[in-house]
Structures are given as C-alpha cells and as structure tokens.
Amino acid sequence: MYNPAYLLDLAIRRSERTAAMGEKAMSYPRSISAFFPAYNDGGTIPSMVLTALLTLRQVTDDYEVIVVNDGSTDYTADVLEELGSRYPELRVIHHPQNRGYGGALRTGFAAATKEWLFYTDGDAQYDPRELVTLVSALKDGVDIVNGYKITRQDPISRRIIGRLYHHFVRLSFGFKLRDVDCDFRLIRRSIFDKIELESDTGTICLEMVKKFQDAGYVFAEVPVHHYHRQYGVSQFFNWQRLFRTACHLAVLWWKLIVRKEHLDKST
C-alpha cells in the first residue's frame, strides 16, 4: 500500500477544488454504497471493510458498506458477522452456495440504496482509499468512473493471459475503455433500474460495460494501483475456468453483438 499521506493529500486537493468550483461542488455524491463481493477472502475482507468506512467519511456523510459472501468455505462468514455486530453501516448478505462472481455482483447491485455505488473485489488487490480518486473525477454528466490499472501486479503468466484477453474482448465487443476488466468503479445507482444484467460469471464485467456504453452513459477514467494478491487463490486463472469463460464470451458476443438483444429491450 502507498503512503498514508496520499489520502490526506487527495482530501486537501478535493477541498481546494470544491472551494474553487462553488456551485459545481454538487457534482460530489450525496451518498454512496460501497460494495465488496467476497469468496474465501477471510484474510482480507476485514481490512477492506474498515478502510472503506474510513474513506467514505472523507467523501460523503451518507454511506453504507455491503459485503456479499458468495458461499465462502473459509472463515469469511465469521469475520463478517463479527464486523457487522460492531459497525451498523455494514450489511452482510450470505449466499448459502457459491453463485459465481456475476451472481455476487448482481446481489450487491440490487441491495445498494444510495445515490452512487462503488464496488471492488474483496481480495485487496485494489485499495479502497482510491475511491477518493474516483470521486474527484465526477463532473456534470458523468455516470460511471472507471479505474484502469497503472501496473498489473500478477505473475507473468497471468499478465500475458490478461493482456491477450483484454485485446480480444476490446476488438470483439467494440469497447472504448482503457481497462474493461478493472473492477474498481463508481456507478450512478439509478442505472441499474434501466440496465438488466444476466451473467453469473466473471463475464458480467463485459456485459455491464457494453450495456452501459451502448445505452449512452458517460464514462470517466482514472488510474488506480493494483497489488499482489496476499491471501487466497484467484478464481479466474485456471484452464477449466478459462474454457468456461470462453464459452460464456461466445454466448455474450452472440447476444450483444449479433442479436443486440439489449438494444431491443431499451426501445
């Protein structure tokens, strides 16, 4: 993690910018739901929750933290229950069985109640303190602030696969973002009243961004740090899961690019 002075510096810059903007300071969110999907993240989710609570106080007076425990088999459920008993701002939702990354995201998106929704993964590969960076990018007309990784901190094999995956889906789906697969986003919650998501796997990120983009929502992009995974094992980078992902990508491509089903629903 970077120097704690970073957050203070961002807060000072935010205050200076707010003073300079005058009436435009209303671009800052009135309320935020911070959401973490968690699967066997018992070693990292407590620090993610606590850091989110501290950071949310810097950017809004009205906030909540939601964690969806997606059928974890480690001690994730126990630590979340303990945290929930101590912090009333935290809501914990337990899936009795694992529903997949997309299923966890859909549960969290549906549970959010605030004006804006911030989400990132519970494995601590992103720092919740950089929510301040997302908030600083909010301007009139912006609907989604999307992070992009400054440097990917994964083993070389995963970086290579990730880079190939990124270029493939960007060309196949016509994405315009620098980093479609960066799960560090601040989204206007009301978007989910109009956009229906269906994926239960990690391809939900592609589905979500494509549907947002095609619906005409406005993106801003900011750089964020990415860190080595300190606890647990990635659920994405194994050959069996990659094969299933390829199958899901083919179905998604057929629905979104060939049939354009999402556009038919919006008309």
Summarize this structure briefly.
The protein is of the alpha/beta class and 267 residues long.
The helix/strand class is: alpha/beta
Low-confidence segments, ≥5 residues, pLDDT <50? 11-26
- Oligomeric organization of the protein chains: single chain
Q: How many helices?
A: 9
CATH superfamily: Spore Coat Polysaccharide Biosynthesis Protein SpsA, Chain A
Strand content: 15-25%
What is the third-level CATH name, the topology? Spore Coat Polysaccharide Biosynthesis Protein SpsA, Chain A
Which value, in Å, is the CA radius of gyration?
18 Å
Give a quick account of the main beta sheet: strands, pairing sense, barrel closure: 7 strands, mixed
Helix percentage range: 40-55%
Structure description:
There is one protein chain. This protein is of the alpha/beta class and 267 residues long. It has one domain (5-266): Spore Coat Polysaccharide Biosynthesis Protein SpsA, Chain A. It has 9 helices and 7 strands, in the order αβαβαβαβαβαβαβαα. It has a 7-stranded mixed β-sheet with strand order 3-2-1-4-6-5-7, sandwiched between helices. Strand 2 (63-70), helix 3 and strand 3 (90-95) form a beta-alpha-beta unit.
